[in-house]
Structures are given as C-alpha cells and as structure tokens.
Amino acid sequence: MVFLSAPAALAQSRLVSGKVLDVSNDQPVIGATVRVKGSTRGTVTDVNGAFKINMDAGGTLQVSAVNFVPVELATGSTSPLLVKLKVINKALNEVVVVGYGTAKRSDVTGSVSSVPKERLAQIPVANVLSAMEGAVAGVNVTTGTNVPGASPGVLIRGVNTINGRTDPLIVMDGVPYENISLNDVNANDIASIDILKDVSAVAIYGTRGANGVILITTKHGKTGKASISLSTYAGIEGFAHKVDPMNGAEYAQKYADWKQQAGVTNDFAVPNQYEQENYAAGKSTDWLSKISQQGFIQDHNLSIGGGSADVKYYVSGEYFSEKGILKGYQNKRASIRTNLDANITSWLSAGVNLLYVNNNSDGGRVNLQQAMEVSPWGRYQNADGSYTIFPMEQEEAFKSPMLGLTTTRNDRRQNIITNVYAEVRPITGLKYRINAGYTDVPTLFQSYAGRPSGDIAGGTANISNGETKKWIVENIVGYEKTWQKHRLELTGLYSAQKNTMFSASVTAKGFINDALKFNDVQGATTFSASSSAITSTIVSQMLRVNYGYDSRYLLTATARRDGYSAFGANTNKYGLFPSLAAAWNISNEPFMKDVKAVNNLKLRASYGLSGNQSAVSPNSTITTFTTTTMPSGGKPVTGVLADVLGNGDLKWESTYGANVGIDFSLFNERIGGSIEGYDTRTRDLVLYRTLPAATGYLNVVSNIGKVANKGLEITLRTQNIITKDFRWETSFSFATNQNKIVDLYGDKKDDIGNRFFIGHPVNVVYDYRMTGVWQTGEDPSKQDPTATPGDLKFEDKDHSGSIDANDRMILGQTIPKWTGGLTSTWHYKNFHLNVFIQTAQGIMQNNDLINFRDFGGRMNLPTGIGYWTEANKSATRPKLTYVNYLNYGYVSNASYTRIKDATLSYTMPSAIANKIGIAALTLYVTGRNLVTFTKWKGWDPEAGYGTSGDTEGNYPLVRSFILGANITLR
User: CA-to-CA distance for 754 and 576, rounded, in angstroms?
Assistant: First the structure.
C-alpha cells in the first residue's frame, strides 16, 4: 500500500526523502531497504523510518524489509513520500518490551515470553496473575489461598534462593516495583505483559533480576476521536469441590467405634451435654451450610482514550467487588488511572501516569476448620439468639465456627503510584529520557474480639498501621543508528532509589465492656506494643549494546552495576552483572529463500549473571542485639542480649545462567512456537550459621550456599482448521524444572533440621514412608515393637527394628516437576469458544486435613476418608485411638489437572454495530475452575490448609460462572 503526499511530476535528478511505516500500526519500519530500480543506489531507513536518496526523474523506487511485502513506486517531483508496508509475518514484527526499551520479536536474543492478549482481554479475573496460570511455559502461578483479595504466588524457572524472596520483579510502564500487589493493577488497563526469563534478559535489572521480571505495559491514548470503552461482568460463585464433615449419624457411629477401640463403656450415643440434648431431640446442625453463602463477583470498568497528534490521554476507573462463599469474607477495590502523553516540541515529549487504588477486606469471618471439626450435634445458638461459644459443652476444645462474625475487623490498604517522564531527542537517533516514580502504600488493620466471641481476656483489641514509600529516578540515554545492513542500539542508565517502611502495632486486653472496641485501648488492663522502621537505597548504572547485521545476526551485550545500602562500606557494596546473548535468523539467509515450508527459524543462545538482594535485609550485615526483660532489685528491667554477629563482607546472591532456544514458524504460520533449555547456578546463598555459645552470639549470616536449576520449555501454536466460516486454533505450553541444593555450609552436610538436603530440591517433603496399617494377627515386633492393630505402618529404612527419626526420607517435592497448559479455541463466524486446561504434576504435600487429632472421639472428621476398625481393616487410615507420636504429615500426591476456564463469546459484526451507533460489542459467558482431576483428598491440591495458627487462609476452591460485556462507543 503506497501513499504519495503530492501528485507525481516530472523533474530532474534530485534528492527524494520519505518515511516507511507499518500499515497495521503506523509505526516506523527501521532498516527497510530503499533502492533505485535498475541502479546500485540504495539506502536504509533510520530509527524513525525516514530515508533520503538521490534519483533521476521518472525513476522507480523499490522498498523492501524483512517480513514485509515489498513495493515499487514511481516518484514525482514532490517529496516527502509516505510508504506503508504490509506485514508478512505479524508475529515476528510484534513489539515486545525487553527492559528499558522495546524490540521486534524477530530481534529478541534472550528468553522473552508474552502472555496471550486474548487471555488478558477475555478472562475475567480479580488478579491478572490468574490469567497467566498455566499459559506461559516456565512461569508457575500458584493459588496458595482462595481468600478474596489474596494474590497468587508466581515462580519463574525454579527456586534460586533459600532465605530470599522467590517472586519476580514487577516493572510497570518502565518503572520497577518491589512488593507491589498485582491485585492493584486493573486487568482492563493492561496493554501487554512480557516476561523476561533467562539470565541474560534479566541481568539488565541487576540485583533484583534473579527470579525473573514481569514487564507490564498499560494502555495509552491514541490519536483520533475519543474512544469510550465499558467492560462489565458479574457472576455467581460456589464450591468447586466440597469436603463435607460427617453428618449426625456418621458422627455417632464414629463415637461408638472410638469407645470400642478405647475400651470406654458408657451409655451415651454422643460424648457431651449439649450434644446429648440435641441427639435426644433429633436436632443436628450442618455447620458447613451455616458458614456458607452464595458468592457473588462483579467488576465494572470505564475508560476513555484519545487525543491529537501532540497530546494523548487515557483515563479509566474501576470498581470490583467479591462476596465470598464463606460468610464474612469479602474484598472491594476501587481504582482510577490517568495516563497522559504530550509532544511538547518536535524534540521534547513528556508524560505522567497516575494510579490510585483503595482496597477493603473488612469484616469478621467464619472459620472453616472449626466447622469441619465441631460435632453436628452441637448447639448452634443460645436461647437469646446469640451464638453458643462452646457448642459441645462441657467440651471447651472446640468453639463455634460462627464466632468470627461477632468480631469487628477492618483491613484496608491503599496504593498511590505516580510516574512522570520527559524525553529529549536532540539529534536523529539520540534520545535522553528521565523517569521518576513515587509510590505510597499505607495500610490499616484493626480488630476487636469481645465477650460474644468467647475471648477469655475480657476483650482483645489489635491495631496496626504501616506505610511503605519509594522513590526512584532513572536517567536513560539511547542511541540508534542504521547504515547499509547494520543496526546499532546503545542504552545507558543511571538510577537512584530509596525505600522506607514504618510499622507500629499495639495489642490491648481486658476491657470493662465491649462498647468502644479498639477505639479506647487506653481503657484496657494490659498492653503490648511494637514498631519498626527500615530504610534502604540502591544506586545503579547500566550499559546495553544491541547490534544486528542484515536482520540475520544479532548480538546483545549488557552490564549492570548495583550498589545496595544493606551491605557494609567495603567493595561488596557494589556488584557487576554482565550478560551476552546472540541470535541467528536462519530463515533470513539466502539459502532459505526457496524453503517455502519455513516462515521463520531462529537460534538463540545466552549467558549472564544476575543477583538477588532480597535475602539481605537492611541492617543484617551489622551485629544486632535483641531485647529481654529480667528481674533486678525486685523489679523488671529491660536489657539487651547478643543475637546475630555482623558480617561486613556479605554480598548478594549471584545467579549464573545459560539459555539456548529455537523459535520457529512453519507452513505459512500454521505451526509455530519455541523450544528452550536453561541451566542456572546460584552461589553465595545468604544463610544463617549457628555459632558456638561461647561466642556470645546465636548466628552469623554468610555467603556459603549454592543451588542449581535446569529445565526445558516448549511452546507450540497451531492453526488446525481454517475455512471461510470456521477456524480451530490450539496453543500448548510445557515446562519442566529440576532444582537441587549443591552446597549449604561448605561441609557437604545436610541441614536436616531445616529440611535442606544436598542434591535435592530446596522444597522437599521429608517424612516417614507409610506402607500400610498394622492388622490383627500381624507381628510388628521386628519393625515397630510398640505398634498395635490399627496403627500406621512405616518403613524401617535403617533396619534397626524400631521406627525413629532415622527412618525419615525424602518423599517428594512441594513444587511441580513439570507443568503444562492447553488452550483450544474454535471460531464459527462471530461466535468463539475458548477452553483452557492446565496441569501440574510431581507434587507431594503434607495433608493437614486428614491428619486428625480425635480428642477422645470428640472431633468430627471429613466424611469419606474413613478410619480403621476390626471390621473394615483399612490399609490406608489408622484407628481412631491412634496417637501420631511421630508427627507424620500424611504425605499425599497433590498433582492435578484442571479445566481452568471456558469462555463462549459473541462479537457483533461491525455493520450491525454501526447501525445501533456503537463501534464494537462483545458478549461472553465464562466458567472458572470447572473440573479438577486429582488423587488429593481435600479442598484443593493447589491451596494450603492449616490446622494451627492463623487458619483464615483455609478457604475452598471457588467455581464461578460469569456473564460479561465489552462495549466500545464511537
């Protein structure tokens, strides 16, 4: 497609200028070849797509570029010319973010993956990480808890640390953020998500890149009339899988079986007074039903974008609300974003990005664990309508699961993000950009548990406030130049960053009454308080060189130097992180010209060094003390004791990694994808070594450990059927990771106490191997002399004739050995069906739900898991009187395959949309967490379930059905 700025006219030999653009997005085509037909004269376009060339009157120009359809045009007497080229292979010309810049997919040398845009646009999720789950090879997203407002965890290419954080660095619109919650990012505002995975790609972020980098680009305004978009959805939530506790009859039978096994003789069908009264009256309680409710989720987003050639704007607002399926659980989020970009002069542009988010998770909550354990014959309410504190009176080990609803609980968080930038382009190819970012995250938590909740202290109030602030300033210089077949790009960086955190909390107990709750803590009998403040700074310099020859041979060299205030004033305060990557576009070679089956073939290889500073918190390199209280003269006095010995030579953990990959596209792009292999080695792990008591210190922190990761990743995209009205497409991802500890403390010894074993993954299950249940008539004397029928049978690993700590062994790992995802999409005219299946295999976990502690036959159990009796002779479950003296964790296979989501959508034809006065309309219905296939016995193999400590994270997997619409107005 060719556009001439004026009618052609005859002229003598002259200088012709023009610009070459991509017709699909009006972006410059860099390095396009412009030749005079029939001559040797030629040139290439610069970074702005511009060119100049001398030619004779009446001559013809030939314009060509890799992956674009070449064109010829006759020129007249007037220039400049505007030439628009049509893309041959759109995927190769897709622009991806690579850190401090962008690149065409065909020019990428490192391992950079992108989240499919259709998952961002069509999958209604509260957190964008949920849309990534299983969709990108090598990126393991895990939903540790399904509580509304909780954020999934994400792990990229395995565990590179032991004491440090494993979550990746988040970079949004070019500015890095630590500890940002992606719950705060409106998925409707996201234009693209790119993920840097290999060490050469992440080394550009130095000390913070070892765990990978997620690059988020938000939407910005475009030139033209204002575009108004409304995205809205609402739906219901329910249990994806329900684990029911025993009903009344099952519970009574369990108590009878317990009495028989315990040798207890009484005439009671159930153990306690309240239970006996309800049993006699035939009045049972379904506690799971009592704590449950119909869940509801909704999200409404309105955005306006547009602008002129000089000023572009994008403004959006969102309201999200989720009412959980357990009573009291809820999350509300309101946010507003403003992105403004302005071309002030031909050489100066500036912009600002503003985001404000308010999160609210207020409300007292029911307790799922207690609902599973309390007797179905227990008393639900007192005569006055209040909840019975101890439903199984006289038993006081079990409280009512409803008591949390009587408490007052405020849980709120805000996030204020401000980014501003200015870019100067003094000469062609050279630009200077300054980015300045500021974030402020204030948090508030208040709770009060009074007498109706069974608080024995006479009321307990907790108040905690926190605030995290960060500012960062980045100075970026870029230079690009193309000549003949060469392309050179230089990027330099100097940045400074400061993080500050302050928190304070107070706990007060013993109030005269419950009237003022946490609003009058000075009226309490006892107090405890704490506060902390942490400040850290980072200074960085970086240089990156990209070189390309004829779009065939590509080279990227990067070096970053970081200084971190948490280290001492010696040479270890600064670290240098270099990397090198190369790529060969084989499909652009002349000898591939006639190989029609291959549309794209590229080899990549890289090696680099990145760091992880998260294991070193501020002040951890200096000698620290802890406070203690002791009597002196009959009065308590506060003193200090030696705690951790300082180490001025401490430095960050360093990850060295190699990556090789091949990208391909075959048969007119009917098949495409990539295959990658990587091998990383992390050394100088930050570990705490125990010191002899004679030193006066408990620990010293040192750089002494090593871990390694290697793996294979495969991504495959296929277009299976293409007809006029019907298309079928699939995408497949597969990733495997082998993680192991290479060394710990330099002595080649395992750390059994912390479950760290050399040659094995960081996160392992170390326990006894259960081989069955001792049955009547079996002789345990040579293996476990104290065992009796109905006790669990364990392997005597060391053949000592008894079961003890030496018989524990590594039974598996808690992170998947391999993961995969399969997306299948069918298009029929304007209807689209998308089904996504994910799998995670090779996972072993302790199963706390079935690790029952029966408390003398009084605790309820999940129905269906069973227990041993003389009659059923179970080979997998112990008897009710079994005492788990070994603290066995009931290790179970937590692998699973899940139909994660399915979406049916309808896109209104543009002709119909035009008639009703809108630009576009899409209607869809989505189901999430539809079916899970697993051997796991419990709520969800992916989420944790606790039986001690804070059990608010015990929350069922949710299945949702959502109806939504995306509307764009003219």
Answer: 32
